[in-house]
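Handover notes (outgoing to incoming on-call)

Open items:
1. Cation-transporting P-type ATPase C-terminal domain-containing protein: sequence verified, structure written out, both below. Nothing else pending on this one.
2. Nothing else urgent.
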Amino acid sequence: MKMISCWAVFLGVSFFCISVAMSYNWIDSVVFLIGIIVANMPEGIIAMMTVSLTLTAKRMDNKNCLVKNLEAIETLGCTAVICSDKTSTLTQNKMTVRSIFFPYIGKISCKKCHNDQLIRRYQKIVFARTSPVQKLQIVESCQRLHLITAVTGDDVNDSPALKKADIGIAMDVAGSDVSKQVADLILLDDNFASIVTGIEEGRRIFDNLKSSIAYTLASNVPEITPFLAFVVFEIPLPLGVICISCIDLGTDIWPAISLTYEKSESDIMLRKSRIPQSDHLVSRCLIFMAYG
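Cation-transporting P-type ATPase C-terminal domain-containing protein structure tokens:
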């Protein structure tokens, strides 16, 4: 919204200066300024995003994912690292012999290589006997690498890591009340596979929100045209500020919400995790595409 606001103010001030240069009086120029800003500001975009995220949260609830924070849906879609507590999440704290293997007969040595470099090459690392402080340090280390980190936990000692993580995921059946309170997402069936469903929903709603915002911004172009004709051709102003607001809130918002119901693409789970620092919901490319 900040980028859209800056774009609207820039266009409004630019055309205000043009109207003053064309010898229009100050009152008409101010009306023109306000009209351009209002026409470029999609008033219904906040309501559209709130309704869309709420409907997505309802859909995730039917898939055993209870969302406590609507912003967590979008964050879950760009998760790069999942720090999972093994006991009661992946296992039931019951030891069973599944296979027997022989001890190693050799070692792999690596010269001129630092341990930090070795660790970064591994995509799956197991930390055993970790304390609450160490769990918190693991999350902070992932965040220092600019990785969106999700943490699953069910006990009180997982609460600091759940609170610090970009998205905390608690268990409903085996989880403690403290972990549920600090978590952003609760798995109602304690099934780790439900996280994958949540990530897919997060990626899908992000793609659909971009389509909805592009539609909303593209509909602003016809609203700007009457104000341009008002200045260039000196015709009566056909649309006022209140009329534009009614159009945005009364007609544009419903097709925009319907776009959020689009199904996800077939390769949505094969993509790399989105980088929030560079891939924003409203980008310059999206604005240029909508107005182009």
